[in-house]
Automatic annotation (TrEMBL):
A molecular function (GO) term: DNA-binding transcription factor activity
Coiled-coil residue windows: none
SUPFAM superfamilies for the chain: Periplasmic binding protein-like II (SSF53850), Winged helix' DNA-binding domain (SSF46785)
Protein name: Malolactic regulator
Length: 308
């Protein structure tokens, strides 16, 4: 590939410029990078000479920095370049590692990952897993950033990401979860509007469940009263069991020993719990990592078999 124009661009200059656009303060940027303020000034001037355009103007009347149109355009490109560079560093540094940087939301780890755990153990793959547990939204961002390579993620709609390969493994409806003492227990099927006035116990916002709760509530025409939010499935079930609130979960999350009741929601909403295997497109797995991914693919058939 032949580069047009000059080729003296310094990525550190781009990093200074990127943060100056965000912070609008030379001193703050200099402190962030542990350099002198003149270093930032010289870097911006170097970029302006490189591109032949003014990027930053000082508004002396209002004592503030103003980003020019050329500056906004460069900022957008600089963001892409710096993100790609961070991803390249992460991938190259982990190129020879046999570890599998694996994202696993707690609810998927509880419900479905155990279905393949014994095979992973038998093949000696469990010892290679560096597991990162968080909500699906957080793990999706970590995949984009190159901080993990493979993940099992939940979403209320099938995932579509340009830089990620996504493979849908399971689709489960959301259900209303109530204690066995709740008045709705006998109904088994309800419309979500029947939960108006109830207190809800739900996952924190980095999980997909609050998104589903928002969609169902909007359809039913009321704002849900959130009594408590937590990243812990067991705590949600305990609070619901104590009749301190109701929740929105998938049926597989409820076990007989939980002494809870799952109510089918008859509302015609498209929101479902979609569980996908997600791999970054730029990830080049070695033999161990590829074998791990192949085992995860088996979850699709195992979950379908379990359902029947």
């Amino acid at each position: 590939m032949q580069l047009k124009g000059r080729t003296k661009l310094n990525t550190r200059d781009l990093a200074y410029f990127h943060d100056l656009v965000e912070l609008k303060n030379y001193t703050e940027v200099a402190n962030k990078f542990s350099v002198s303020q003149p270093t930032i000034t010289v870097a911006i001037k170097r970029l302006e000479n490189e591109f032949g355009a003014q990027l930053i103007k000082r508004d002396y009347i209002h004592n503030r920095l103003v980003v020019t149109r050329a500056g906004v355009l460069l900022f957008q490109r600089a963001q892409q370049i710096l993100e790609s560079l961070d991803l390249a560093y992460s991938e190259v540094q982990n190129a020879d590692s046999s570890m599998i940087r694996f994202g696993l939301p707690p609810i998927i780890g509880t419900m479905w990952f155990p279905l393949v755990a014994s095979e992973l153990l038998h093949k000696g793959l469990l010892a290679h897993i560096q597991s990162i547990e968080a909500g699906s939204d957080q793990l999706l961002e970590k995949l984009r950033q190159g901080k993990i390579d493979v993940a099992l993620l939940g979403s209320i709609r099938p995932l579509q990401e340009k830089k990620l390969d996504t493979f849908l493994l399971a689709v489960h409806p959301f259900k209303a979860i109530v204690s066995q003492k709740h008045p709705l227990v006998e109904k088994r099927h309800i419309s979500f509007v029947e939960l108006k006035g109830e207190r809800f116990v739900t996952f924190t916002n980095n999980f997909v469940h609050p998104q589903a709760l928002a969609s169902y509530s909007k359809y039913a025409g009321f704002r849900p009263q959130i009594a408590f939010s937590t990243p812990t499935l067991s705590l949600i079930k305990e609070l619901v069991n104590a009749n301190l609130g109701v929740s929105l979960l998938v049926d597989d999350a409820i076990k007989p020993q939980d002494h809870l009741c799952s109510l089918t929601l008859d509302d015609p909403l498209p929101e479902k719990f979609n569980m996908s295997l997600v791999v970054r497109k730029s990830f080049l797995p070695n033999k161990t990592q590829q074998e791990f991914i192949s085992v995860l693919f088996k979850l699709k058939n195992l979950i379908e078999t379990k359902a029947y």
